Amino acid sequence: MPGSAGAFGEQLSGAGRERHRVGSRMNTERKSARLVLIGNGMAGMRTVEELLKLAPDLYQITVFGAEPHGNYNRVLLSPLLAGDKNVDEIMLHPRAWYAEHGITLHAGDPVVRIDRKRRVVVARSGLEAPYDRLLLATGSTPFVLPIPGNTLPGVVGFRDLHDVDTMLAAARQGGRAVVIGGGLLGLEAAHALMRRGMDVTVVHVATSLMNQQLDGEAGRLLKETLERDGLRIVLAAQTSAITGEGKVEAVHFADGSVLPADLVVMAAGVRPNVALGREAGLHCERAIVVDDTLQTFDPRIYAVGECVQHRRATFGLVAPVWEQARVCAAHLAGAGHRRYVQAATATKLKVTGIDLYSAGDILGGAGSEELILRDRTSGIYKRLVLEGGRVTGAVLVGDVGDGPWYFDLIQRGADVSSFRDRLLFGQALCAAT
Amino acid sequence: MDMSLPVQTVRTTCPYCGVGCGVSATVKPGTIPIIAGDTAHAANKGRLCVKGAALGETLVLDGRLLYPQVRENGSMRRAGWDEALERVAGGFASIIAEHGPDAVALYVSGQLLTEDYYVANKFMKGYVGSANIDTNSRLCMSSSVAGHKRAFGEDLVPGAYEDFELADMIVLVGSNTAWCHPTLFQRILKAKEARPSLQVVAIDPRRTATCELADLHLPVKPGTDVWLFNGLLSYLARHGVKDSAFVAAHTEGLDMALATADADCGDPAQVARICRVDPAKLLAFYEGFAATRKVVSAYSQGVNQSSSGTDKVNAIINCHLLTGRIGHPGMGPFSLTGQPNAMGGREVGGLANMLAAHMDLDNPLQRDALRAFWEAPRIADKPGLKAVDLFRAVEEGSVKAVWIIATNPLVSLPDADQVRRALEKCELVVVSDIVGATDTTTHADVLLPALGWGEKDGTVTNSERCISRQRAFLPAPGEARADWWALCEVARRMGFSGFDYEDAHAIFDEHARLSGWRNGEGGAGRRVFDISGMSGMRRQDYDALEPIQWPVLRAADGTLQATARLFADGRFAHASGKARFVATAPRLPVHALDDEFPLALNTGRMRDQWHTMTRTGKSPRLANHAPEPLIDLHPNDALLCGVREGELARVTSRWGAMVARVTHGGGIARGSVFVPIHWSGQTASDARVGALVNPAVDPVSGEPEFKHTPVRIEPFVVEWHAFVLSRKALSLDSIANWTRIQGDGFVRYEMGGRGPVGADWARALLAADGEADWIDYEDGSAGAYRAAYLVDGRLQACVFVARRPQLPARDWLAGLFARESLGALDRATLLAGRAPQQGPDAGPTVCSCFGVGRNTICAAIRTHRLETTAQVTACVRAGGNCGSCVPEIGKLLALASCGEEAAQ
Fold first, then answer.
1. Does an H or E element contain B75, and which?
2. Rounded to two decimals, what is the model's pTM?
3. Superfamily of structural domain A155-266
4. pLDDT tens digits, A278-307
5. Closest alpha carbon to B148 in B331, B352, B316, B350
6. Which of A84, A93, A373 to mutate to test binding with chain B, by most B CBs within 10 Å of its CB?
7. So what's the architecture of A355-431 in CATH?
8. What are the protein's UniProt keywords (chain B) (predicted)?
9. In angstroms, how far is CA A154 from the centroid of its own chain?
10. Which residues of B touch A350 (CB under 8 A)?
């Protein structure tokens, strides 16, 4: 049973034995192999970390990053923006760490070309680095709406520390912000900006907030809660233009309405960064296509994170990326017995005071069943999607304490028929007889 | 409330069954009276059954009829007593003037006090001049009355409760004593504990709770009791178990009776076949009876409620006469009365075929005596209509006015839908009751508010001829008045004299004097019922009257002489002074089973309810024993009928149908069905068993055959089952089937229905508007919907719906109605219908991705001696997703190691 605690533990110990054998063999080769990582972000660096655990001496590792920092936890940009964390707290690998581990870091010098024939990458500075194995972890960039004015100063994405700095600078002026996109990221940004004192409106093209993770009812409840907190929300909003003299001044909509704005945050989704891979001739569709071992169509080149496409799916959450890193590292280490299997994912909105949990397939298909609990006064909404006596999806608002348990049930494919009528009331009650 | 008012304890008598237990009510103004058994009352010596113990809960005034009402343009409106009484008196007078005295009738009740009963009977028989006064005692005791009169010449119960303790054998025939006469059963139980040799034989088609005590249970086929006792008579005669001297000196008619018995029942094997009992058990019973002199044969509705009920009574009495086992301690036939004052009602002639003070309608001398005593203008000279016939006559139109007092014939009479038709047609329906809405009061043209238990004052007589006082300890609520007062007022308005009693004492005094009036003089015959010793009592002596068994005469020294047992001298009340054997040719119930109606319906009481639940139904604690109407049958029959335990089924007879929940009580033989009598249109949508019961009656007593109606059973298909607990009563017109159950601070409804259910449906049902604080739970594909409605955090109502009857237990939810507001925890599991479970306290959440609390992490660190955040993640998953809590986990690790060092 993949993912179960027991199997998980066994795999770990199996890998441990493997590591000693592999390690001793590799030691004799004295780090002759060269690994280049393009993308100094969470996916790539987690792969490196996992690789170091398995085969610390196998590769000479070189890392190229577009941003001039060490590796930080991008997931925590929202708390950073909101002021709940500072930059040091979100730093995963400060520069010193690279030195300690004998890794060469080129931060702020992005790779511009891959020469697969020569097995060399070329950075913007002209620096070239040869590789025996190449790992692509180029991530994604915010999707910028193709509308007039989308490049005006004051229009930002929400992707990196630089974006956060831009937003914080704007927030210090007070004023009005418009966040385009009512998804996870957009709402976190909006909430953070509101806490920083801005007057924030979220405009969302769909009719319900977080429609990827929430059903309509949960979306409505979330909207009510956010509005109570002071956020303005406009749904079914078709943004048509951004206008301003030299900087952002207003956002225009298809229905003719206009919102004044001093800051516009584009949080309407991301696009995988595939240009480098595509130019290098790697097979790409929506992203760089990888197999179950995270290998691209070039056997020397692997890819992980938001830039990859695995069996039609692309990725935006951290949990599957961690798993990709584990699998990819195993293969890079030469201990290639793991396969990447897509699993259900769970989401929490990191907004203070809002409890929201979404896991698995919340839409359900033909033959799926649903359990719903609503307590509007308490701001609670819970919905589970069941198929064949098993939980396949969960949406929780207001009381998310049992979220991880439902997620566990989803992952284990546990049969819940015997306690179905208590399921929605939580683990404690289901454990009771 | 005035706290300075004194606490007062009043001794009174329980208003339920015929055991007639003494009750002490301690009243503190502003609180619910504290009810306890009266240790000084001989009937119960301080014991009470659960119904009696819960009397305090039934005294609340909700639902009480507090003011007279009259019908005007089709609907009822409040009226003054004057107007209401005028309407009754005027209506009766004009109908009598036009159609004669037999066009009016009274239908009264064994719930009445003797004094009320006396006045009602005097009014009808002496002044209206018709014997059209019958009582619901017709439905329970009339076969015993008729049997007593045939055997003894008068309606007399020879023994006393004490005889149960003195007997060596107790035969309980058609009597679930354990449930229906619980304190007497407790006395038997104690006696048997003290003296295990005391044999108890239970004769009952059902294996009732009573049978658990029995040494021998004969589960006879319904309606075959006469074969059984004829067989016993024959057996005793053949084995020479006969008190020849007694038979010769004090009885007549043995030969005929014996010949009749021998004809069909001389062979025990044949009797066993007919009665469908094990021949060895039958012989064991016969042998035991033969060998035991001190035998009490107690019988109740299983004997009386039959088309051969009177014969059953006489078949039993015959066996006691043959063996001379009567009139002495520890022996005798013993009729256990159903109602608290069935006996008192009989004393004053409350049945259509008798006169007051045990005088006979067909005895001209006694008729004259009575008229003379009353100085009445006329006296009824022919029997009136008995209950079933009475309501037929109402439907046919020959009886045009009926005054129903303290009973609910729309529920309790057989073919009860006929009663509804009758009342719908009746010109003038007067109903005196303590409850505003009953199935019967809805048909009233005039409603008169009566006094209830604890408010009224008078006497009752229990099964052992013991007269006890019911005393008032509560003020009359609203404008409620005693029934005797209303009767007297109507009589006076009709121009009758002799109805100006000052109080109940004055009526009792007249009643006592009448019992001695020309008693035994001039060929009018001696009546055993004689309480003339109590005439001339002062008011305070009446008020202080101790329970006393009649006949009561006054000794030379002025003291009252009670009589524990009758017939000790072998003198009976027939003119000959002898008892009579009655030839009882056995016959089957009137309506035989057939293919269409293959099961025999038996009706009866449940342990914790009384009659139509107008009083016991108010007590939450009495509701739990049998909250819903039920159909008890054998699992094999259920299988054949296609019904399942716990689901709803319809029982249908030629006369009507009802719906209730199927149960297998374990006590029902194949071919029989048991349904309790208690549910009415007020407490259930469709569970009035009276509507099904066949209207066949005993030819002598006129008592209906409640214990044998051919029925069939089929599933009552519903799409969902549900229950509701609600502070307010709900309108359930749209629900296919429901039962209302009184809870503590709420009303519970058990329901079965069809059609879609969901939020809109539930909001309409619970009368909650769109803004209500509403919690709901939905499992559409399982057909489950649950919702709760709160007001200011206080649970107002909840509803649970499922496709199958299996729903959460009601107890925990019921308890929530006592709370002023619900906490978040209770609220969270409210719709699970279960108390929240307190898991280990995880502490404040550290890892919100995986929901891992601080305490969980610290415990893991300690238990597994974790040293790095990665180890913590591997162990409890915390920090394994977004990683934002990793620094916090680091701090916890540091704290833990500090703690370790400090500890070292």
1. strand B75-78
2. 0.87
3. FAD/NAD(P)-binding domain (3.50.50.60)
4. 999 999 999 999 999 999 999 999 999 999
5. B316
6. A373
7. 2-Layer Sandwich (3.30)
8. 4Fe-4S, Iron, Iron-sulfur, Metal-binding, Molybdenum, Nitrate assimilation, Oxidoreductase
9. 24
10. 848, 882, 884
